[in-house]
DNA sequence: CGTCTTTTTGACCATCCGGTCAATTTGTCA
DNA sequence: TGACAAATTGACCGGATGGTCAAAAAGACG
């Protein structure tokens, strides 16, 4: 079961190409030819490594999931509440900035009703959010931050940070700036700091 | 140029069917057969009314644009600042609740880079936002609300209100509730009220 | 009713696309 | 080097899909 040198190289190429193509065109808009071309392989050769288009997509998505949730996992119950939450906002924004393709990939999947990762959403994701939301609400109950619904707060952070990347055409059009993230960090810090201070 | 009785009826049916199909499957995922079926017409008959799939999509999108921006248009410079902005949040959320298909349609278009409505974004939308952002910043300068970037505030409102509908699978999975909008109104009011009060 | 226009449709076409397969090339290793 | 396995590919297939077209059916109207 150990992968040959060539296997390793080509699977890496395919993953990179698939991320590029799927994030730009969505699942239905992506074609095997496009992925193969981007990866520098022929279509039958691509299918030699992955049995189907769906398999490529699925493996790509699930492989990125844990990475995508890292910032939230890092939210520390023992830390200083406001700094922890604002730090999470900042890390999530930075992650979106550095991984725009991944962000769009997930946005697309979610928008379509999450046909592939629905189980993950109701399982691991639900649990992680429940855990961290409890931490946040604990802080609120202890009076360290203003009262707030933890789950709603976390979802707000997702919605806002990802918006700058997923809807970057719109953001650029509205602001007139070339960089959609210009001003984002400052605004989000203001917005969430005020929310946490009540 | 006046439309016959049959034309009016069938064009209305097509618009409704197209909204249904495009919003559920995106532009690429939608098929003429699906739209025709949903509208109760044959495919050639559908194409008798609209010359191409793109035309249907384009007319649908542009026809809904003004409707979609109504709540922002209604933001009144002469009103009470906090009430005006919170009222806008509430109206936008209500609009998303009542028009989830339209919301997804736009989300899809934006996510794909707005190939069709980009001109509208940089034109009318940019101007409308600039105008309303100036109003908000005027209120801030006068000390009626806490200092805030008007454009960023407006975009925040979009991102958050639409998230509940566009990402409803995720919201439902995380909250565990059947209604993705449960708690949304209260949370958003809290979040934005605190933001406006500094 | 008769004539003209509008509407509708079955049959068809070209292209795209996911995927297969047999055959060839390349790599591995004793 | 020879022999076997891994990797690669051109040619091809079947189904889906956007769109066409000629002919038929249904309305409109005097």
Number of helices of chain A: 10
Oligomer: homodimer
Number of domains of chain A: 2
The string of secondary-structure elements of chain A, in order, is HHHHHHHHHH
Class from helix and strand fractions of chain A = mainly alpha
- Alpha-carbon distance between the two ends of chain A: 56 Å
As a percent range, the share of strand residues of chain A is under 5%
Major sheet summary line of chain A = none
Q: What is the top-level CATH class of the largest domain in chain A?
A: Mainly Alpha
Overall geometry of chain A comes to elongated
CATH architecture of the largest domain in chain A: Orthogonal Bundle
Helix content of chain A: over 70%
- Number of extended strands of chain A: 0
Average the pLDDT over all residues of chain A and give the rounded result.
97
Per CATH, what is the topology of the largest domain in chain A?
Tetracycline Repressor, domain 2
Low-pLDDT windows of residues of chain A: none
| Fourth-level CATH superfamily of the largest domain in chain A | Tetracycline Repressor, domain 2
Quick one: which chains have the greatest interface?
A-B, 50 and 50 residues
Keywords:
homodimer, 198 residues, mainly alpha, Arc Repressor Mutant, subunit A, Tetracycline Repressor, domain 2, 2 domains, 78% helix, 0% strand, DNA-binding
What does the model show?
The structure is a homodimer of 198-residue chains. Chain A is mostly helical and 198 residues long. Chain A has two domains: 51 residues, Arc Repressor Mutant, subunit A (Orthogonal Bundle), CATH 1.10.10; 134 residues, Tetracycline Repressor, domain 2 (Orthogonal Bundle), CATH 1.10.357.10. In chain A, helix 1 packs across helix 4, helix 1 packs across helix 6 and helix 7 crosses helix 8. The radius of gyration of chain A is 19 Å and the shape is elongated. Chain A starts with a helix and ends with a helix. At the A-B interface, helix 1, helix 6, helix 7, helix 8 and helix 9 of A face helix 1, helix 6, helix 7, helix 8 and helix 9 of B.
